[in-house]
Design goal:
Helices cover about 30% and strands about 25% of the residues. It has 12 helices and 20 strands. Bound molecules: 5'-O-[hydroxy(phenylacetyl)phosphoryl]adenosine.
Length: about 450
């Protein structure tokens, strides 16, 4: 068949009969439990729930007997408490961005890398890309999963991969022009930024061959998608994932661009009410909970993603049977995502409170500057420092807070020192975050 060579298509998995998928999920869940039971963390946690053998779970409904896992659990088990295989079998680790002290670390053995790669490749192909594409991966490499995750997946599809990484905008469009890039991967804010720089520098649209972009790692709205598509004359596909569950390739939109297929042969998905923790009926909006079905080095059971979404109830016209999730509406915790980097307000608090000249009150302000996010921390300082009116002392303090905070959260913040008692004091629960970014999701 012509065109066959260009395909990365596994209908036996992507169009699998739902009954067969259920049987596969149950068998895989048992295998996953077997692995989990070998870890220090789950060995204990599952025993408390009366599960001491994989066969204690008899049907997919029994999933509800398994306790949830949280980010806190992952940190508490740091570094190796969740490892289900010998360390000599582990090939790679990734760690979540912007965490103080204990990072959330994920380990992969050879099979895990292969299955993750296959999921990303499957996702990429479902958007209409194939091996004839030239792919520029404009996202952070390193401990962040976005870089290597997409890199391996795109190679698996057979695309020509340019590991450009993020940043250095003028160089990005030079690369696009030089190599004829047809697909890029970036955060939506970086895509907007690249586009505005291209206009500023007079780069002509017909000097680049871009057709598609994968955009994710941070929330954005349908309007933002449309805007990028119109400005750059490309198709933008929403891409969702979290490092605890591999990273990118958990769910991605297909050519229909109407919801992200969540690969159910790799993850068992539930949507729960974040308050009652009870599973919600199909199609209702709640928190996504995921269980890995084919991860060996580090199985994760009923992970509370904190991401708010819902399943589409109708099948996708593309024919893939894996259910689609809606654009992420928000989170059920206070995590902020600033230019793709995850930050908890508690991390900022830890740093500010650790600096003795800093006062008791602070305010985190997030806003848009151009198309990128800008993080400012307003910090109260003792009246004495202000009274001394010594610019050098204030500058040194500002720089100290900035540097310490940047080390902790990996984002470069702007620090504004303000006088004691000048920030709003709320009665009851303190409001530490002022997120001024437009919310039009
Ligand atoms: O952001 C993995 C990733 C890389 C996804 C590249 C897509 C592309 P983390 O740093 O662990 O992993 O952050 C995960 O980011 O729980 C969501 O809150 C948010 N997030 C990721 N993708 C989207 C998206 C990567 N498309 C956290 N829409 C998740 C909204 C997203 N939020």
């Amino acid at each position: 068949m012509s065109g066959m060579n260009f395909q990365y298509w596994h209908p036996e998995k992507e169009k699998i009969d739902r009954a067969k998928l259920g049987a596969w999920q149950l068998a895989s869940l048992k295998k996953t439990l077997g692995g989990a039971l070998r870890t220090d963390f789950y060995g204990r946690r599952l025993a408390e729930a009366g599960i001491v053998d994989a066969e204690d779970v008899k049907s997919l409904d029994d999933l509800r007997r398994i306790p949830f896992t949280t980010k806190h659990d992952l940190r508490a088990a740091f570094p190796y408490g969740m490892l289900a295989v010998g360390k000599d079998e582990v090939l790679r680790l990734h760690a979540s961005s912007g965490t103080t002290g204990v990072p959330t670390t994920i380990y992969f053995n050879r099979n895990d890398i292969a299955s993750w790669t296959a999921l990303v490749a499957r996702s990429i192909f479902s958007t209409g890309c194939d091996r004839r594409d030239v792919f520029q991966n404009m996202i952070t490499y390193g401990l962040f999963t976005g870089g290597l995750g997409f890199h391996y997946g795109a190679e698996e599809v057979g695309m020509l991969v340019i590991p450009s990484g993020s940043g250095n905008t003028p160089r990005q469009f030079r690369i696009m022009q030089d190599y004829g890039t047809t697909v890029v991967h970036a955060t939506p804010s970086f895509l907007l930024h690249v586009e505005s720089r291209m206009r500023e520098e007079g780069v002509r649209r017909d000097s680049i061959r871009l057709k598609r972009a994968f955009a994710g790692a941070e929330p954005y709205s349908e309007d933002t998608r449309r805007r990028i598509e119109e400005l750059l004359h490309i198709d933008v596909f929403n891409s969702y994932g979290l490092s605890e569950l591999n990273g990118p390739g958990d769910a991605l939109e297909c050519q229909c661009k109407n919801g992200m297929h969540l690969w159910e042969d790799a993850f068992l998905a539930e949507v729960i009410d974040p308050d009652t923790l009870e599973p919600l009926p199909e199609g209702e909006t709640g928190e996504l909970v995921l269980t890995t079905l084919c991860r060996e080095a580090m199985p994760v059971l009923r992970y509370r993603t904190r991401d708010i979404t819902a399943f589409y109830t109708e099948p996708c016209p593309c024919g893939r049977v894996h259910r689609r999730i809606r654009r992420i509406k928000g989170r059920s915790d206070d995590m902020l995502i600033v230019n793709g980097v995850n930050i908890f307000p508690s991390q900022v608090e830890e740093v500010v409170m650790g600096i003795k000249e800093a006062g008791n009150n602070y305010l985190i302000v997030v806003e848009k500057e151009g198309f990128m996010d800008r993080l400012t921390v307003k910090t109260e300082v003792g009246a004495k420092i202000f009274k001394d009116d010594d610019a050098r002392v204030l500058n040194a303090l500002r720089e100290n807070i900035r540097r310490t905070l940047q080390t902790a959260i990996t984002v470069n913040p702007r620090i504004e020192l303000v006088e004691s008692n000048s920030l709003p004091v709320s009665e009851g629960k303190a409001k530490r975050v002022l997120d001024k970014r437009p919310k039009d999701v």
